[in-house]
Amino acid sequence: MTTTHKTWFITGASRGFGFEITKAALAKGDNVIATVRKGKEQIAAQLESENLLVVEMDVTNPESVDSAVAEGLAHFGQIDVLVNNAGYGLLSAVEEGSATEIRQMYETNVFGLLNVVRAVLPHFREQRSGHVINLSSVGGLTASAGWGLYCSTKFAVEGITEAMAKELAPLGIYATAVEPGYFRTNFLDGSSLSTAKNIIADYAETSGQMRDFAPEVSYKQPGDPAKLALAIVKLANAEQPPVHLLLGNDTLKAYRLKAASLEIDIEEWLDVTTGTNHDDVV
């Protein structure tokens, strides 16, 4: 592990994972450019550190993103770690979600992430170092009823991150997708979660059950956000960081179940899978 102090750029820092990661990085003695949509004075007062710069930024607005990155670079001189944390969920069966609801979520979770990546990567490429850490989800590894639309944004984050890891490696830059399970944040209380306005009775036993389940487990989730933040700090200081970091026993269990199910499908359909080449291909 390296121990040199770094400068972080963290999106969605006002609450949840973003706030905890900001605290953990500051506690290590690092500099943090913490971006929030509004209320920067409140966050600055809460954390009160000379190593902290709080900037108001809207990830869906490229001009706002470029301005925030420029302000951070002017203040600290460099950025070493980018944490794309800003995002929110949509609880909905795939059919229930409206085009507007889906597009708005994609604007933040996917296109917003890309706005920040495009603004920071030129700096990383110039200095030939840096680490992009994209907050995905257990839902980026396996989808669940009621979360399909949200999961689709996290599946996109997974693909973007995997490709970036390969594209950036020759330049000395790393990219990691972090897949948290259920952590005890405010994600399920409505602060970072929307519910589709259209409810279809036929989905009562699938997405409908998830709508009932989510508020029941809010603030009872097994994961500790402070421990997640420490894991992210450790990740940012790893000499050879992974492309994927699963966080939480529930994430690990869900992924292993999916992998086992996929192996069963492969074996059952192996003849079909391997029987689709042209006859002249050996």
Describe this protein's structure.
- This protein has a single domain, classed as Rossmann fold (3-Layer(aba) Sandwich).
- The protein starts with 6 loop residues before the first strand and ends in a 9-residue tail after the last helix.
- It is globular and about 60 Å long.
- The chain has 282 residues and is of the alpha/beta class.
- It has helices spanning 16-27, 40-47, 62-76, 99-127, 148-168, 207-217, 225-236, 249-268, 270-273, and strands at 7-10, 31-36, 52-56, 81-84, 89-91, 130-135, 173-180, 193-195, 244-247.
- The protein has a seven-stranded parallel beta sheet with strand order 3-2-1-4-6-7-9, with helices on both faces. The chain has a two-stranded parallel ribbon with strand order 5-8.
Secondary structure layout plus pairing:
Elements: E1 7-10, H1 16-27, E2 31-36, H2 40-47, E3 52-56, H3 62-76, E4 81-84, E5 89-91, H4 99-127, E6 130-135, H5 148-168, E7 173-180, E8 193-195, H6 207-217, H7 225-236, E9 244-247, H8 249-268, H9 270-273
Parallel strand pairs: 1-2, 1-4, 2-3, 4-6, 5-8, 6-7, 7-9
